[in-house]
Amino acid sequence: MKIINIDGGIGRVITALPALLKYYQNHPNEEWYVSIMGWDYVPLGIPELQERTFNPDTKGSWENYFMKADEVICPEPYCLPNFYMGKISLSEAFDEIINETEEHDDLNYETLNLSHAEIRKGQEVIYKAYEAQGKEQTIVINPYGSTAQVCPLGVYDDSLRSIPESMFNQLCELLAEDYNIIYMGYRHLLPTENKFVYIPEHDLHIREWMGVISQVDYLIGCDSVGQHIARATGTQGCVIMGGTDSVNMSYPDYFRIFQRKKPVYSPMRISSVQSNLAERLNKECVEYTEEEILNIYENIKKDMKNILK
User: Fold this and answer.
1) Is residue 30 a contact partner of residue 60, using CB atoms and an 8 Å limit?
2) CA 71/CA 30 separation, integer angstroms
3) Spatial CA neighbour of 160 closest among 23, 39, 300, 260
4) Would you state the pLDDT for residue 129?
5) Is the sign of the CA dihedral 212, 216, 221, 227 positive or negative?
């Protein structure tokens, strides 16, 4: 019996799904399981994965799974040369490790399977945004990564994965003239009043956010979970990159990508010292100019018009 252990944030879990589904196709008669700490609800509704996924932080998992296993693998894309040399994405890195292949054309990225309740919740949130803002089309914006935090002078993300706060506010103000804007993120990262975005009344479970993103017209994301949900549900959008590279961390063959400068690779999970040095060289990657912000805005408007067509 084999265990594939997927660790890290929820975005990594979503990017691993295509490789896990491919493994199932290639090993239909093998007994194997997927261990996911904290995010084991992500594969819910996926027939090939739901019953074989477990949370290792539950009573009995040690005796029922690990003590019966002949093999346990812990795929780590950040330690894969093809990944850290900027040749492949997270999903492709998981594929290379789990399926031992460099052929990735057969990966299926639209993996998430939502319940009727999750779909209805998404419809409810979108309708409430429409009631509040009254526009024909709806955008979800996910501006901040998990490491963003409030500082005395505003919201900052030392990992350079988030959209700068001033840029986020300016884009919302511009886009709110024509579109309903739903904010996805932690409430404490927003000012007390923000008239340009709709904030769901209650904090949504991430599965409910999947229901929202799967049904909106467009997603504006950064190097965070929103873009991975959009790719896994077939929603169009754009990703504004900062200190990480689009090839590694996004889907440049699917989304419109904005990257003002190619970053120096930050070897996270390998060397904290080298990561810190890379981040010092990458600060210009998030310093978008007024002209660049307006260009992003105009391109989003073009995308929205094409969606209407």
Assistant:
1) no
2) 12
3) 260
4) 98
5) positive
Kindly list the distances between the CA atom of residue 111 and the CA atoms of 100, 108, 223, 290, in Å, as whole numbers in the listed order: 21, 7, 19, 37
Instruction: Give the number of other CB atoms < 10 A from CB of residue 114.
Output: 19
- Strands 154-156 and 149-151 turn out to be antiparallel
**The overall pTM is greater than 0.85:** yes
* pLDDT tens per residue across span 139-171: 999 999 999 999 998 999 999 999 999 999 999
Q: Find all residues with CB under 8 Å of 110, minimum gap 6, and list them.
A: 231, 232, 233, 234
What 3-state class would DSSP assign to 163?
A: coil
Neighbouring C-beta atoms of residue 80, cutoff 10 Å: 18
CA distance 186 to 270: 28
Backbone angles phi, psi at 199, to 5 degrees: -110, 120
Whether the predicted pLDDT of 3 surpasses 90: yes
Segment 290-309 mean pLDDT? 96
Write down how long the chain is: 309
Residue 4 near residue 36 (C-beta atoms within 8 A)? no
Region of 100 (left: φ > 0; alpha: ψ -120 to 50; beta: rest) is left
pLDDT of residue 46: 98
HSE-up of residue 131 (Cα within 13 Å, Cβ side)? 8
Position 202 confidence tier, pLDDT thresholds 50, 70, 90? confident
Long-range Cβ contact pairs of 45-50 (< 8 A, separation 24 or more): 45/112, 45/113, 45/114, 45/115, 46/17, 46/21, 46/111, 46/112, 46/113, 47/113, 48/20, 48/21, 48/24, 49/17, 49/20, 49/21, 49/24
Instruction: Name the phi and psi angles at 154, rounded to 5.
Output: 135, -160
Give the DSSP per-residue string, 228-254: HHHHHHT--EEEE--SS-HHHHS-TTT
Helix (H) or strand (E) holding 164: none
Return the axis-axis angle of helices 90-98 and 10-26, rounded to nearest 10°.
Answer: 40
